[in-house]
Design brief:
mainly alpha, 71% helix, single chain, 0% strand
């Protein structure tokens, strides 16, 4: 009986080596620029502007089809009321009042959120405190606290600042803490090796690494604070005899000046777009995008 020999492995053929000579460079190759339409379309401001134009046209067409200025004024009527309100100075004064109150509540909420998250990443009791408080108060609408704020602080800016702090504090604290939790362990160990502890450890290691999440929390907190302020002014009106944008909208609604109501709402939207497109976009461009943390 003959033995079965194992199959011999097949050896792939060896290709012969060769050199391909390169053609000499004659200088004819010229870098081609992109078409001007492509370069123009790459501008973010143009694309967003076109979206706004399309929305304005749709608004105008719908209002003309509705043909009832009391229910839905046209875009041109609203734009005219907005320009008149700005030219008279009334809308400028109302906007200044609202933004001054907003700035106080927003800054206070940011500082409290930073203090709470710093305590949470430093101690176990801080983590338990943050988890408990956010579970209790984050689902609670800020405007629901307005009756209590009126009892505690009266008809003044204190009530508005209180509800603004509530609207900013919890979403910002959650986003910041989630960003701190996502910092790689390598960076944490590097900070400890350099002897960083406490506030220095948070500012020099955790904050730069978690900056995308912090910026996201700042934007969410700003949006919550802005809409809470307008809603609060709509509910209880003027603060210390001075009303902001929400009070302007409420007054004109009672007097059935619908074009002015829509002008006030349009100004609220425009301020939101300006803050998002100028302030936060610039902050992201000079920090997280420049550092390669965000596309």
């Amino acid at each position: 009986m003959s033995a079965v020999l194992p199959p011999t492995p097949s050896v792939p053929p060896v290709r012969p080596e060769y050199e391909r000579p390169l053609e000499p460079w004659t200088g004819d190759a010229v870098e081609r620029e992109l078409p001007w339409t492509t370069r123009l379309w790459s501008q973010v401001w143009l694309r967003k502007g076109l979206i706004l134009v399309v929305l304005a046209v749709l608004w105008e067409l719908l209002a003309r089809w509705q043909d009832n200025d009391l229910l839905l004024p046209t875009f041109t009527a609203t734009a005219k009321a907005l320009v008149q309100g700005i030219a008279s100075g009334e809308l400028v004064a109302k906007t200044a009042i609202s933004l001054s109150v907003l700035l106080k509540g927003y800054v206070a909420g940011v500082l409290l959120a930073f203090a709470l998250t710093t305590l949470a990443v430093s101690t176990q009791i801080g983590r338990d405190l943050l988890s408990t408080l956010t579970s209790m108060f984050n689902p609670l609408p800020a405007i629901a606290l307005l009756p209590l704020a009126l009892l505690w602080f009266g008809l003044g800016q204190g009530s508005l600042v209180f509800v603004l702090i509530h609207s900013v504090l919890w979403p910002l604290a959650l986003n910041t803490y989630a960003g701190f939790q996502g910092v790689p362990e390598t960076l944490r160990m590097a900070g400890r090796n350099y002897g960083l502890t406490g506030l220095r450890y948070v500012l020099q290691i955790l904050v730069p690494a978690a900056l995308p999440a912090i910026l996201s929390g700042l934007k969410i907190g700003w949006a919550f604070a802005w809409r809470t302020l307008i809603a609060a002014e709509l509910v209880f009106g003027a603060s210390s005899g001075k009303g902001g944008l929400g009070w302007y909208i409420f007054q004109n609604r009672n007097e059935l000046y619908t074009d002015r109501v829509f002008a006030g709402l349009a100004l609220v939207v425009l301020i939101g777009l300006a803050v998002e497109s100028l302030a936060f976009a610039t902050l992201e461009r000079v920090t997280v995008r420049r550092w390669g943390q965000q596309r």
